[in-house]
Design a protein that fits this description.
With 188 residues, the chain is of the alpha+beta class. 61% of the residues lie in helices and 13% in strands. It has one domain (3-27, 72-187): Butyryl-CoA Dehydrogenase, subunit A, domain 3, CATH 1.20.140.150. Keywords: Cell junction, Cell membrane, Membrane, Signal, Tight junction, Transmembrane, Transmembrane helix.
Length: 188
Amino acid sequence: MSAALQVTAFGLALLSTLFLLLATCTDCWMVNADDSLEVSHKCRGLWRECVTNMQDGVRTCDQYDSILADHPVKIVVTRTLMITADLLAGLALATLVLGLDCIMFLKEDPCVKLKMCYGAGVVLGAGSILGLIGSVWYAVDVYMERAMLVSHNIFLGVHYDFGWSCWLGMAGSTGCFLASVLLICCLS
């Protein structure tokens, strides 16, 4: 039972960590379709802004200025939280691999292997909370930006939505949290 639970938690943690990495690297955190004719589709991300022409499918991307340049707070905070969540989830995944019962590492000392699984669960939980805070921070800021435009009657066909990268970050963080709960609570 314990080995099956560990493998299940490992699979969930691996998939969720991949989701977190993809969310950090991709460029569609906020979708902005400027025109009512839907001629173009604009995605803003943490690293660049891309516009896709819907008629011919041509996509052009503009990189943001240097990482040391002044950026909006939502981008800086989300970058920091997501990169930290990625690093913690990767560290937890490496620790979890060594702590699995099916791996021959430290096979003679099962108590140490169990502590490694617990430790991986704690680190994975910390990473998941940081990733969730980063994803939700960005989503709330997108919502507030849209609400501000609507309240000032500047809503001239501009439509802001959460992009798939934002949803991927939330899904990856939630999956890491569930894997963390499996490792911490259910291994006893």
